[in-house]
Amino acid sequence: MNIHHKSLGLRAQPILLSALALSAFALDASAQAVFSIDYRGASIGTPATGGGCITAADLLMTPPAGVPGYGPLLPPMIFVSGGLGPPGPGLGIGFGGGAVCICPVPGMIPCARELDALSFGFDAPVKPQQMPAGVFVFSVDACTMGAPGPLAPNVASEAPVGDSAADVFESLFLPAAPVGPFLLFPLTGNSGIIDGNGLVSGSGALYPGLGLIEPRLPGPALTGDDVDALDLRGPAGAVPFPVYFSLDAAFPNACSGFPNTGSAAANGVPPGAVLVTLAPGGPPIIYAPPGILGLDLFGPGTDDLDALALTENGVAGFQVSPAPYAWAAAAPTDMLLFSVRRGSAVIGMPDSIFGAPIEPGDILVPPVAGGLSPFPGIFVAAEALGLATGRAGFAMAAEMDALDTVQPPQTGLPYCFGTAAACPCGNAGAPGNGCAHSANPLGANIAAAGIASVSADTVVLTGSGMPAGGPCLYFQGTAQAALPFGDGVLCIGGAIVRLGVKFNNLAGSSTIPSGLDPALSVMGLVPPAGGFRFYSSWYRDAALFCTPATFNVTNGVGVLWTP
């Protein structure tokens, strides 16, 4: 087979942007996404799956086990109540408006019950080294714009169609933090990993969703939902109290044109503080006050902590790190990363590490000892995450609404799935696979595992769901694509390299490299500096299934090679 677009007579088609599924989240199929939504979300006040009304103070999950899935989905279920239930004693956040706020109307400001940051205290500590894709997982608000990056879907592709605010994104490759503003590196940016509703977005993207309502548009109109807090937990299980979180300020929200709820003041705590509820039912108490974080230096309640990632060291109270990475020392302190909301007084102030103006899309740390200012330090600048900033000349800077840190693998970013809209005959495969073929209505799949380092390469590609015993050709490209090809969709483009022919076993599966094959990076001529490469597998389908062609292909998988 000669894979060249010209020799195949293929004409360029509109590209269907497909999911780069969460590489970190895919570590454990039973992992849970716990989240909250803001008070102007369309799901506020609607019945939750399993009972109760959804409020902006509740911790939600996708039923039945909290694992994102493909839509249409049931509405979220209440995992932990913001108040007293259901499903039982919760965080102890007051009703802030009386009985009417037990089942509130969306956008009803008197219901001062909004949680806007979340951690269970065991987020992955960020290590003092280069960071592969997926170390930082975050959400943004509806007004956030993104810079075009090397992988789609991302904030840049989803924001224009109103599908970014309910989505979750992961960082791409980053050097060791602190990472300052205006980083110019071709592998940085973000990629969409969890969708709001799990349906095809206006950009054509498809990835597992949370059961929320999309689109969410900027401005005063009540439209869809906005993920306002997030924690990717380990295997499903009981609620792990204590729960760490923050509540919001009452100052105006520049994105919606409405004020925030003032849930912090309603509960007698500052919006710039990290709170903790130690046991079911509360009450919440202050874990880290604003002053120790470099906030509220212009007066009480002038800053609003809006996103949180925390690694608690097991010693009572918050032990602040005197410098970034002190939490990795022999006697570790607590790792506390955070962002601040638009309208906070600290925005525009010089940070304590670079002396750069702080933005609401930056990942921050408490002020470093002997730093350049008394304000927080920029741990990872918004630009390095592929987000728009005022520093870069954008009129509306990005706002990070939620944050988590995870320990991801360095391989396996699937994309270009065989949806009914993309497949030549509407022959959709199972979610995550290529298009259906005569021997398997679920379609075929390709996945990657191993260490994606050119100098220490252990990556293995595994194809599955193909015809038993037949030949398949694995190949590599330098770009994503989505072109009709045989009975399927060709997912790679650019400079294409034929890696080798393998014969599937009786289960329809094969791997490369295998036997005496050289390493994958050697076969693919990946340069020492690394970079993104994209992989797929072509296979023979003997039957005339849906087109005159007798072949099909798997989905694609992207690998970020590091030196």
Q: Please count the helical segments.
A: 4
Name the shape in a single word. Answer: globular
Please count the beta strands (DSSP E, at least 2 residues each). 27
End-to-end Cα distance: 32 Å
Output the radius of gyration. Answer: 24 Å
Low-confidence stretches at least 5 residues in length (pLDDT < 50)?
1-30
Main sheet attributes: strand count, strand direction, barrel closure: 6 strands, antiparallel
Beta-strand percent range: 25-35%
- What integer is the average pLDDT? 87
Give the % helix: under 10%
Structural class: mainly beta
Q: What features would you describe in this structure?
A:
Strands 17, 20, 23, 25, 26 and 27 form a six-stranded antiparallel β-sheet that branches. A four-stranded antiparallel β-sheet has the order 4-9-10-11, with no helix packed on it. The radius of gyration is 24 Å and the shape is globular. By secondary structure, it is mainly β. The longest helix has 4 residues.
SSE diagram, text form:
Layout: H1 5-8, E1 31-37, E2 59-61, E3 77-80, E4 115-119, E5 136-140, H2 155-158, E6 168-171, E7 190-194, E8 227-235, E9 243-247, H3 263-266, E10 274-277, E11 285-288, E12 305-311, E13 335-340, E14 363-365, E15 377-380, E16 400-405, E17 413-415, E18 445-449, E19 460-464, E20 471-477, E21 479-485, E22 488-493, E23 497-503, E24 510-512, H4 520-523, E25 531-540, E26 551-553, E27 556-561
Antiparallel strand pairs: 1-8, 2-3, 4-9, 5-6, 5-16, 6-7, 9-10, 10-11, 12-13, 14-15, 17-27, 18-19, 19-24, 20-23, 20-25, 21-22, 25-26, 25-27
